[in-house]
Write a structure and sequence with these properties.
heterodimer, A: about 150 residues, alpha+beta, Thiol Ester Dehydrase, Chain A, B: about 150 residues, five-stranded antiparallel sheet, about 35% strand, elongated
Chain lengths: ~150, ~150
């Protein structure tokens, strides 16, 4: 299981893929982002976006699933949570039929100031479509258990 | 009620955007699909963690907030989506039975140089029924400029 000490700045990973259908997009949109361009094909066609697009939160949620599955395949990570994320950008619309992949790169790590058993790492996360266009990027923050708590 | 355009917003404006109660079933359903870490999908496993019980995925909290924002504000606005989120913080765990309320505060706003729209930068504050700030989301939303009235 991956602990804080095992993660190195510069380490990069690519995790799985997922293809979205219009039905998937509408189902998520109705529950979590019921703006017309995420839930109604006709209204979406008349909008700024020219057609149905996935909620940016749906893209983010898919990315999270791909990362969790990928880390599980690597034997799991002693991840105890996240305080949030920074600099999330929705760069290109995600449309029905798009296939999304996720890649991550560790950009820094530091010991927890308050808890000697923990450390945090930041990752540049990019979600890429089938044309290799980056559709979304953000900086993820993960908190990990140390193998050896600091003295 | 007439639609809210970019010009209808002002720095300092506060919108109260409603509230919703989160169930254990919803927490597990979201997490099974998008964030299947043990503390989000399995009550027993979650009890053994530092969280002491099932907690919602931070991404689920964001989806809940987005739903309230869409229904409480965007549905009555000429909303055009958002380019991203500057910062999200998950400050306090969200547990089954919590009632989450969202408030939006306008921090800044500026017109687009090239399109008939403007950016309204807000901090959204998600609180639970105890008044704890559980999540903050800060970033710009895009709104159409009011169309010129026919003479």
């Amino acid at each position: 299981m991956i602990h804080f000490e095992d993660i190195r700045v510069g380490d990069s990973r690519e995790y799985g893929s997922r293809t979205l259908t219009a039905a998937d997009i509408i189902r998520f949109g109705k529950k979590f982002d019921p703006q017309p361009f995420h839930v109604d094909e006709r209204a979406a066609a008349d909008s700024f976006y020219g057609g149905l697009i996935a909620s940016g939160w749906h893209t983010a949620a898919i990315a999270m699933r791909l990362m969790v599955d990928g880390m599980r395949q690597e034997g799991g990570a002693a991840n105890v949570g996240s305080p949030g994320f920074d600099d999330l950008k929705w760069l290109k619309p995600v449309r029905p039929g798009d296939t999304l992949r996720v890649r991550t790169r560790c950009i820094d790590k530091r010991d927890s100031r308050s808890n000697p058993a923990l450390g945090s790492c930041r990752f540049q996360v990019e979600v890429v479509n089938q044309r290799d266009e980056i559709v979304m990027s953000y900086v993820a923050i993960g908190i990990y258990l140390k193998r050896q708590p600091a003295a | 009620m007439s639609k809210l355009y970019y010009e209808d917003f002002a720095v300092g404006r506060i919108d109260e955007l409603g509230s919703v109660t989160v169930t254990a079933e919803e927490i597990v359903e979201f997490a099974r699909e998008f964030d299947p870490q043990p503390f989000h999908i399995d009550e027993k496993a979650a009890e053994g963690t530092r969280y002491g019980g099932l907690i919602a995925s931070g991404w689920h909290t964001c989806g809940i907030a987005m739903r309230l924002i869409a229904e409480g504000l965007l549905a009555r606005s000429a909303a055009l989506g958002a380019p991203g989120v500057e910062e999200c913080r998950w400050l306090v765990p969200v547990r089954p039975g919590d009632t989450l309320s969202v408030r939006g505060v306008v921090l800044d706003m500026w017109p687009s140089r090239s399109k008939p729209m403007g950016f309204v930068r807000r901090r959204y504050e998600v609180r639970n029924q105890k008044g704890d700030l559980v999540c903050t989301l800060t970033g710009p939303g895009m709104f159409a400029r009011r169309p010129a009235e026919a003479a």
